[in-house]
Prior knowledge:
The chain is about 15% helix and about 35% strand. The chain is mainly beta. It has one domain (about 5-105, about 125-200): SOS response associated peptidase-like (hypothetical protein yedk fold, Alpha-Beta Complex). The strands form two sheets. Strands 2, 4, 5, 6, 7, 10, 11 and 12 form an eight-stranded mixed β-sheet that branches. Strand 8 (about 100-110) and strand 9 (about 115-120) form a beta hairpin.
Amino acid sequence: MCGRVVVSSPREYYGSAFGVTETVGEELPPSYNVAPQAFVYSIVDTATSRRLGVMQWGLVPSWAVDPDAGPRPINARVETLLGKSQFSGALELRLCLLPVDGFYEWEKLPDGRRQPYLISAAADGPLALAGLWDRWVGPDGDALVTCTIVTTAANRPMSELHDRMPAILEPGAVDDWLDPTLRDPGHASALLKPAADGVLRFAAANPRVNNANNDGADLLEPDPDLGVPQRLPL
């Protein structure tokens, strides 16, 4: 599962990292604790450009009668993408990349506390999370553009915290994932695999992350009074 992400860099940083040629919408304020239903950056390929824009995290399918009446999944399991009507249409037509500086996962400690860890790229730079998006249009014509993060089985280091992880696109897979001419579900699914061991950095974060109302760069620093290891074994 992926339930919190860090999107703290200027959007030009993400655009440069992933070859964006067009930027639309407003720039988001930096956030070190982005929770579901918040807005995140997304990158899509159109017929004429690679576009960076903003979507709301929590997928509402285009065929939904009421966006508030049903679930708004923040994650989509790669193993069941083709079997769920919520996701299958998006997998064929609407793929996106969600650029983030990192994401959080939690370890349950022996005393019952939940210790967050920030997972980011070991080589620095943003992570490319595979996503699906959709556009819901209401009776008044207003559009709601939403997305979900695709998840896969955990790699070995991540399995110390959780059995799932976001599907992180390798540099060579980004173009294939976004290419609007490559919309075969089987091909897309083949790109979604656990990250290789050693490509991610695990760092203890502050437990204040557990409250979605908290934000700020200080969340990346562990509480020194808790004595939590700075790094998990890689």
